[in-house]
Amino acid sequence: MTPQDHQLTDNTALDLARALIRQESVTPAQGAVFDTLEKSLKALGFEVWRTILTEPHPDPVENLYARRGTKAPNFCFAGHLDVVPTGPLDAWSAPPFEGRIDGGQLVGRGATDMKSAIAAFIAAVKSLLEQHGAPDGSISLLITGDEEGPALNGTKPMLAWLADKGETLDHCLIGEPTSRQSLGDMVKIGRRGSLNARLHVRGSEGHVAYPHLADNPMPRLIEILKRLSDTKLDQGTEHFQPSNLEVVTIDTGNGAQNVIPAEVIAGFNIRFNNLHNEASLIAWIDGICAEVTRTMGGSYLLDARASGEAFQTTPGRFTDLIASSIKEVCGLDTELSTSGGTSDARFITHTCPVAEFGLVGQSMHKADEHTSLADLEALTTIYLRILENYFPIYAPDHTRPDPGGKGP
Questions:
Q1: Is 238 part of the annotated catalytic residue set?
Q2: Which of 47, 62, 82, 402 is catalytic?
Q3: Which of these CATH numbers, 3.30.70.1150, 3.30.70.360, 3.40.50.620, 3.40.50.150, describes 194-308?
Q4: Domain 3-191+310-406: what homologous superfamily?
Q5: How does pLDDT run across 34-60, given as a tens digit for each residue?
Q6: Which of 329, 378, 383, 377 is closest to 11 using CA atoms?
Q7: Four-CA torsion 68, 71, 73, 75, nearest 10 degrees
Q8: Residue 82 annotated among the catalytic residues of the structure
């Protein structure tokens, strides 16, 4: 089957996607876009809670949690309503917050990343309730306004807030645009970790004509970066590509051509798989820096931290459910991947099994971001198939205390 074979009984997904796109929600998001989402959720019987967090993010961030049902298991759909800036408006063929339909495409900022996926999920819930009634369990949404930005006041603190209120998530699906060429060709079951480092290598300044009166830190930095870059961290694993280190900046702040700088600063990033972690990588970097400065002199300061560790949801019933739903609708054997950048799944993985699946992402963060109407319809159908099969597969565990219906 192809996406064109599947038609919605109404335009719930498209109408809601357009309504969400029309609310300008450049990160960090709050206000009207959450009003639109809340209205659609309450119409389906969800209880909705909204929070606005102001620390440590410099701007207020709004988040939303909604739940329909009081029993376990609790299937959660997660995502974000904030979007990246539009860039130059003259690069767009249509106003970025108009939600224009053009040649079978929905065009607008957030059309793929990821307002349409949120709309598709809600449309799928609507169809589930109309066709089968309420499931024997609960459905929830965890939606943030701070994913495209620093992600300080979004999903991570919301998960702590939910845990404090006794809410339990059993499985989570994030609607990130994971598909590459065709809808359904890739599902993310994990992500590589990301470590950012700034290395200060110190010497003493002086005139270039009198190098014996100065201590140039540049040769030491070059040697350190060479050793780091020449090291092959690993060969990759079954579900992870090899780890890689990329130098992104070198700076002395030196505006003169005849002055040896006192300090040089390099920035680099490591995208790492599950063979490494923050501590092991920092120890490796620190060891090379110490060895070079011990033999070549000078001193250094290393500031390194991971924005997220590598993680993987073990393939099994949950990933099989997603893959079989894609196969039924799109006729594709999906690839279970950990490629790409980071996402809020890095936070949710500590709470429950999590996977990511959504639209084709080729136009995300670009001018004329768009998704095809056929893909939007097919995505809604896939989400519906997942919901239809999830609750029978995961038999309700009514022995587990679950106060979800009482509200967080």
A1: no
A2: 82
A3: 3.30.70.360
A4: Zn peptidases (3.40.630.10)
A5: 999 999 999 999 999 999 998 888 889
A6: 377
A7: 10
A8: yes
